[in-house]
Design goal:
Layout: H1 15-20, H2 22-40, H3 47-72, H4 80-98, H5 101-124, H6 130-149, E1 154-155, H7 160-167, E2 169-170, E3 173-174, H8 175-193, H9 195-205, H10 207-212, H11 217-243, E4 245-246, H12 254-264, H13 276-295, H14 302-326
Antiparallel strand pairs: 1-4, 2-3
Helix pairs in contact: 2-13, 3-8, 3-9, 3-11, 3-12, 3-13, 4-5, 4-6, 4-11, 5-6, 5-11, 7-11, 8-9, 9-11, 12-13, 12-14, 13-14
Length: about 325
Protein backbone atom coordinates (compact mmCIF):
# COMPACT_ATOMS: atom_id res chain seq x y z
CA UNK A 1 0.00 0.00 0.00
CA UNK A 2 1.41 3.38 -0.91
CA UNK A 3 1.97 6.16 1.57
CA UNK A 4 -0.70 8.24 -0.19
CA UNK A 5 -3.39 5.77 0.72
CA UNK A 6 -2.51 5.80 4.39
CA UNK A 7 -4.48 8.10 6.67
CA UNK A 8 -2.73 11.21 7.81
CA UNK A 9 -1.53 11.19 11.38
CA UNK A 10 -2.69 13.98 13.57
CA UNK A 11 -1.37 15.36 16.78
CA UNK A 12 2.11 16.30 17.87
CA UNK A 13 5.12 14.69 16.15
CA UNK A 14 6.66 11.72 17.91
CA UNK A 15 10.19 11.72 19.29
CA UNK A 16 11.14 9.46 16.40
CA UNK A 17 9.89 12.00 13.87
CA UNK A 18 11.78 14.79 15.61
CA UNK A 19 14.95 12.67 15.68
CA UNK A 20 14.45 11.90 11.99
CA UNK A 21 14.67 15.59 11.14
CA UNK A 22 17.97 15.87 13.01
CA UNK A 23 19.65 18.29 10.62
CA UNK A 24 16.84 20.81 10.98
CA UNK A 25 17.04 20.48 14.75
CA UNK A 26 20.83 20.87 14.67
CA UNK A 27 20.54 23.97 12.52
CA UNK A 28 18.04 25.47 14.96
CA UNK A 29 20.30 24.62 17.93
CA UNK A 30 23.30 26.21 16.19
CA UNK A 31 21.34 29.39 15.49
CA UNK A 32 20.05 29.56 19.07
CA UNK A 33 23.56 29.06 20.47
CA UNK A 34 25.01 31.83 18.30
CA UNK A 35 22.27 34.27 19.32
CA UNK A 36 22.47 33.41 23.04
CA UNK A 37 26.27 33.61 23.23
CA UNK A 38 26.44 36.84 21.25
CA UNK A 39 23.89 38.47 23.55
CA UNK A 40 25.94 37.47 26.60
CA UNK A 41 29.30 38.26 24.99
CA UNK A 42 29.20 40.63 21.97
CA UNK A 43 32.84 39.80 21.14
CA UNK A 44 31.57 36.43 19.91
CA UNK A 45 31.04 37.97 16.46
CA UNK A 46 34.40 39.72 16.33
CA UNK A 47 36.56 38.86 13.33
CA UNK A 48 39.31 37.34 15.47
CA UNK A 49 36.86 35.10 17.32
CA UNK A 50 35.08 33.94 14.16
CA UNK A 51 38.43 33.02 12.59
CA UNK A 52 39.43 31.14 15.76
CA UNK A 53 36.18 29.15 15.61
CA UNK A 54 36.69 28.36 11.93
CA UNK A 55 40.24 27.12 12.55
CA UNK A 56 39.09 24.83 15.34
CA UNK A 57 36.17 23.59 13.24
CA UNK A 58 38.55 22.89 10.35
CA UNK A 59 40.71 20.52 12.41
CA UNK A 60 37.72 18.50 13.59
CA UNK A 61 35.92 18.56 10.23
CA UNK A 62 38.96 17.20 8.37
CA UNK A 63 39.06 14.06 10.53
CA UNK A 64 35.27 13.88 10.93
CA UNK A 65 34.88 13.73 7.13
CA UNK A 66 36.91 10.53 7.03
CA UNK A 67 35.35 9.22 10.23
CA UNK A 68 31.85 9.67 8.80
CA UNK A 69 32.74 7.47 5.84
CA UNK A 70 34.16 4.88 8.24
CA UNK A 71 31.22 4.88 10.66
CA UNK A 72 28.84 4.50 7.71
CA UNK A 73 30.51 1.10 7.15
CA UNK A 74 29.71 0.25 10.81
CA UNK A 75 33.29 0.67 12.04
CA UNK A 76 34.98 3.28 14.22
CA UNK A 77 38.51 4.51 14.93
CA UNK A 78 39.31 5.64 18.48
CA UNK A 79 43.03 6.07 17.79
CA UNK A 80 42.71 9.35 15.87
CA UNK A 81 43.53 11.58 18.85
CA UNK A 82 46.76 9.76 19.69
CA UNK A 83 47.66 9.61 16.00
CA UNK A 84 47.21 13.38 15.60
CA UNK A 85 49.79 13.98 18.34
CA UNK A 86 52.23 11.43 16.91
CA UNK A 87 51.91 12.90 13.40
CA UNK A 88 52.83 16.35 14.70
CA UNK A 89 55.90 15.03 16.52
CA UNK A 90 57.08 13.07 13.48
CA UNK A 91 56.58 16.07 11.19
CA UNK A 92 58.62 18.28 13.50
CA UNK A 93 61.40 15.71 13.82
CA UNK A 94 61.70 15.41 10.02
CA UNK A 95 61.55 19.18 9.51
CA UNK A 96 64.26 19.73 12.10
CA UNK A 97 66.46 17.04 10.55
CA UNK A 98 66.02 17.99 6.89
CA UNK A 99 64.47 21.49 6.70
CA UNK A 100 62.32 20.05 3.90
CA UNK A 101 58.60 20.82 4.12
CA UNK A 102 57.79 18.35 1.36
CA UNK A 103 59.60 15.49 3.07
CA UNK A 104 58.02 16.35 6.43
CA UNK A 105 54.51 16.30 4.94
CA UNK A 106 55.09 13.06 3.04
CA UNK A 107 56.51 11.22 6.05
CA UNK A 108 53.72 12.45 8.32
CA UNK A 109 51.00 11.43 5.84
CA UNK A 110 52.67 8.06 5.26
CA UNK A 111 52.74 7.40 9.00
CA UNK A 112 49.10 8.42 9.48
CA UNK A 113 47.96 6.41 6.47
CA UNK A 114 49.98 3.46 7.77
CA UNK A 115 48.22 3.63 11.13
CA UNK A 116 44.87 3.58 9.32
CA UNK A 117 46.01 0.64 7.21
CA UNK A 118 47.09 -1.36 10.27
CA UNK A 119 43.78 -0.58 11.99
CA UNK A 120 41.93 -1.75 8.89
CA UNK A 121 43.92 -4.98 8.62
CA UNK A 122 43.37 -5.77 12.30
CA UNK A 123 39.63 -5.37 11.81
CA UNK A 124 39.24 -7.04 8.40
CA UNK A 125 41.91 -9.75 8.59
CA UNK A 126 42.13 -10.58 12.28
CA UNK A 127 38.39 -9.99 12.79
CA UNK A 128 39.01 -7.86 15.87
CA UNK A 129 36.14 -5.54 16.79
CA UNK A 130 37.08 -2.03 15.61
CA UNK A 131 36.30 -0.53 19.01
CA UNK A 132 38.75 -2.89 20.73
CA UNK A 133 41.34 -2.86 17.97
CA UNK A 134 41.58 0.91 17.75
CA UNK A 135 41.67 1.29 21.54
CA UNK A 136 44.70 -0.99 21.43
CA UNK A 137 46.24 1.17 18.71
CA UNK A 138 45.47 4.30 20.73
CA UNK A 139 47.36 2.90 23.71
CA UNK A 140 50.33 1.90 21.55
CA UNK A 141 50.47 5.35 19.97
CA UNK A 142 50.15 7.12 23.31
CA UNK A 143 53.09 5.17 24.69
CA UNK A 144 55.03 5.19 21.43
CA UNK A 145 54.99 8.96 21.05
CA UNK A 146 56.68 9.35 24.44
CA UNK A 147 59.34 6.81 23.45
CA UNK A 148 59.82 8.63 20.15
CA UNK A 149 60.12 12.11 21.69
CA UNK A 150 61.71 11.00 24.96
CA UNK A 151 58.91 12.97 26.64
CA UNK A 152 60.12 16.24 25.13
CA UNK A 153 58.17 18.77 23.09
CA UNK A 154 59.46 18.83 19.50
CA UNK A 155 60.08 22.52 18.86
CA UNK A 156 60.70 23.74 15.35
CA UNK A 157 63.17 26.30 14.05
CA UNK A 158 61.06 28.83 12.16
CA UNK A 159 60.15 27.62 8.65
CA UNK A 160 57.65 30.12 7.20
CA UNK A 161 56.14 27.68 4.71
CA UNK A 162 55.29 25.23 7.50
CA UNK A 163 53.93 27.92 9.79
CA UNK A 164 51.62 29.02 6.95
CA UNK A 165 49.85 25.63 6.98
CA UNK A 166 48.11 26.54 10.22
CA UNK A 167 48.35 30.31 10.44
CA UNK A 168 48.42 31.43 6.81
CA UNK A 169 45.70 32.82 4.55
CA UNK A 170 44.73 32.62 0.91
CA UNK A 171 43.00 35.94 0.45
CA UNK A 172 40.59 36.32 3.40
CA UNK A 173 40.37 32.58 4.03
CA UNK A 174 42.53 30.73 6.60
CA UNK A 175 44.46 27.87 4.97
CA UNK A 176 43.12 25.23 7.44
CA UNK A 177 39.57 26.19 6.42
CA UNK A 178 40.48 25.75 2.74
CA UNK A 179 41.92 22.29 3.45
CA UNK A 180 38.81 21.35 5.43
CA UNK A 181 36.47 22.61 2.70
CA UNK A 182 38.36 20.68 0.00
CA UNK A 183 38.40 17.42 1.98
CA UNK A 184 34.75 17.83 2.93
CA UNK A 185 33.79 18.46 -0.70
CA UNK A 186 35.65 15.37 -1.96
CA UNK A 187 34.11 13.18 0.76
CA UNK A 188 30.64 14.62 0.10
CA UNK A 189 30.83 13.97 -3.64
CA UNK A 190 32.18 10.47 -3.01
CA UNK A 191 29.37 9.51 -0.66
CA UNK A 192 26.57 11.25 -2.53
CA UNK A 193 27.33 10.76 -6.20
CA UNK A 194 29.66 7.79 -6.74
CA UNK A 195 29.34 4.02 -6.85
CA UNK A 196 31.97 3.79 -4.13
CA UNK A 197 29.77 5.87 -1.85
CA UNK A 198 26.78 3.62 -2.48
CA UNK A 199 28.92 0.58 -1.69
CA UNK A 200 30.05 2.14 1.60
CA UNK A 201 26.43 2.68 2.65
CA UNK A 202 25.54 -0.85 1.53
CA UNK A 203 28.33 -2.42 3.60
CA UNK A 204 27.07 -0.70 6.73
CA UNK A 205 23.43 -1.51 6.02
CA UNK A 206 23.83 -5.19 5.12
CA UNK A 207 27.36 -6.53 4.80
CA UNK A 208 26.19 -10.09 4.15
CA UNK A 209 24.15 -9.01 1.14
CA UNK A 210 27.11 -7.04 -0.20
CA UNK A 211 29.33 -10.11 0.03
CA UNK A 212 26.74 -12.28 -1.70
CA UNK A 213 26.65 -9.78 -4.56
CA UNK A 214 30.39 -10.33 -5.10
CA UNK A 215 31.68 -7.08 -3.59
CA UNK A 216 34.71 -7.28 -1.26
CA UNK A 217 33.36 -5.60 1.87
CA UNK A 218 36.75 -5.94 3.59
CA UNK A 219 38.36 -3.70 0.97
CA UNK A 220 35.70 -1.06 1.44
CA UNK A 221 36.23 -1.02 5.19
CA UNK A 222 39.99 -0.94 4.68
CA UNK A 223 39.45 2.06 2.42
CA UNK A 224 37.51 3.81 5.19
CA UNK A 225 40.29 3.23 7.73
CA UNK A 226 43.04 4.45 5.39
CA UNK A 227 41.10 7.56 4.38
CA UNK A 228 40.47 8.36 8.03
CA UNK A 229 44.18 7.90 8.72
CA UNK A 230 45.16 10.27 5.91
CA UNK A 231 42.69 12.86 7.19
CA UNK A 232 44.33 12.52 10.62
CA UNK A 233 47.67 13.18 8.93
CA UNK A 234 46.44 16.46 7.44
CA UNK A 235 44.93 17.55 10.77
CA UNK A 236 48.09 16.60 12.67
CA UNK A 237 50.24 18.70 10.35
CA UNK A 238 47.95 21.70 10.71
CA UNK A 239 47.83 21.37 14.50
CA UNK A 240 51.62 21.14 14.74
CA UNK A 241 51.89 24.19 12.50
CA UNK A 242 49.47 26.17 14.68
CA UNK A 243 51.45 25.29 17.83
CA UNK A 244 54.80 25.42 16.00
CA UNK A 245 55.67 22.33 18.03
CA UNK A 246 55.03 18.63 18.22
CA UNK A 247 53.45 17.84 21.58
CA UNK A 248 52.87 14.25 22.75
CA UNK A 249 49.64 15.31 24.48
CA UNK A 250 48.28 17.48 21.66
CA UNK A 251 45.46 15.16 20.60
CA UNK A 252 44.12 14.24 24.02
CA UNK A 253 40.33 13.99 23.84
CA UNK A 254 40.31 14.82 20.12
CA UNK A 255 38.77 11.47 19.20
CA UNK A 256 35.81 12.14 21.49
CA UNK A 257 35.06 15.45 19.79
CA UNK A 258 35.29 13.88 16.33
CA UNK A 259 33.04 10.93 17.18
CA UNK A 260 30.59 13.18 19.03
CA UNK A 261 30.31 15.43 15.95
CA UNK A 262 29.74 12.45 13.65
CA UNK A 263 27.05 10.88 15.85
CA UNK A 264 25.42 14.22 16.60
CA UNK A 265 25.23 14.81 12.85
CA UNK A 266 23.05 11.74 12.44
CA UNK A 267 25.50 9.06 11.32
CA UNK A 268 24.41 5.76 12.84
CA UNK A 269 26.93 3.70 14.80
CA UNK A 270 25.27 0.59 13.39
CA UNK A 271 26.22 1.73 9.89
CA UNK A 272 24.35 2.26 6.64
CA UNK A 273 23.09 5.75 7.42
CA UNK A 274 24.81 9.09 7.71
CA UNK A 275 25.29 12.54 6.23
CA UNK A 276 28.38 14.67 5.87
CA UNK A 277 26.25 17.81 6.02
CA UNK A 278 24.96 16.59 9.38
CA UNK A 279 28.56 16.05 10.49
CA UNK A 280 29.39 19.62 9.50
CA UNK A 281 26.51 20.91 11.64
CA UNK A 282 27.66 18.68 14.50
CA UNK A 283 31.18 20.12 14.31
CA UNK A 284 29.85 23.69 14.28
CA UNK A 285 27.58 23.07 17.29
CA UNK A 286 30.36 21.53 19.37
CA UNK A 287 32.93 24.19 18.53
CA UNK A 288 30.51 27.07 19.10
CA UNK A 289 29.79 25.58 22.54
CA UNK A 290 33.53 25.29 23.23
CA UNK A 291 34.08 28.87 22.19
CA UNK A 292 31.14 30.06 24.27
CA UNK A 293 32.58 28.35 27.34
CA UNK A 294 35.83 30.26 26.86
CA UNK A 295 34.51 33.75 26.13
CA UNK A 296 31.89 33.50 28.89
CA UNK A 297 34.64 32.67 31.36
CA UNK A 298 33.27 29.29 32.42
CA UNK A 299 35.42 26.44 33.64
CA UNK A 300 37.20 25.11 30.56
CA UNK A 301 37.02 21.53 31.86
CA UNK A 302 33.45 21.68 30.59
CA UNK A 303 34.91 21.35 27.10
CA UNK A 304 35.59 17.70 27.90
CA UNK A 305 32.22 17.18 29.57
CA UNK A 306 30.16 18.39 26.61
CA UNK A 307 31.32 15.74 24.07
CA UNK A 308 30.53 12.99 26.60
CA UNK A 309 27.00 14.29 27.06
CA UNK A 310 26.59 14.67 23.31
CA UNK A 311 27.72 11.09 22.63
CA UNK A 312 25.19 9.65 25.11
CA UNK A 313 22.33 11.85 23.90
CA UNK A 314 23.10 11.40 20.20
CA UNK A 315 23.39 7.62 20.58
CA UNK A 316 20.01 7.53 22.28
CA UNK A 317 18.47 9.62 19.50
CA UNK A 318 20.06 7.27 16.96
CA UNK A 319 18.28 4.33 18.61
CA UNK A 320 14.99 6.23 18.56
CA UNK A 321 15.55 7.17 14.92
CA UNK A 322 16.26 3.54 13.99
CA UNK A 323 13.09 2.30 15.68
CA UNK A 324 11.07 5.00 13.93
CA UNK A 325 12.51 4.11 10.51
CA UNK A 326 11.81 0.39 11.06
CA UNK A 327 8.09 1.00 11.50
Amino acid sequence: MSDISQPARSGRPSLGQVAGSGQIVLGAILLALCVAISLAAPQFYSEANVIAILRQCALVLIVASGMTMLVITAEVDLSVGASVAFVGCIAMAVLNATSSLTLGILVALAFAGGVGLVNGLVVTRLRVNSLIGTIGMMMMLQGGVYLFTREAVQNHHQLPSFTALGAGYVGPFPIPVIFAAAIFAVAYVTLRFTTLGRYLYAVGANEKAVRLSGIRSERLKLFGFVVTGLCVGVAGLILASLMNAGQPTAGRGFELTVIAAVILGGTSLTGGRGSLFGTLLGVLVLKVIDNGIIILGWNQDLQMVVPGIVIVLATYLDLVRSKHNDR
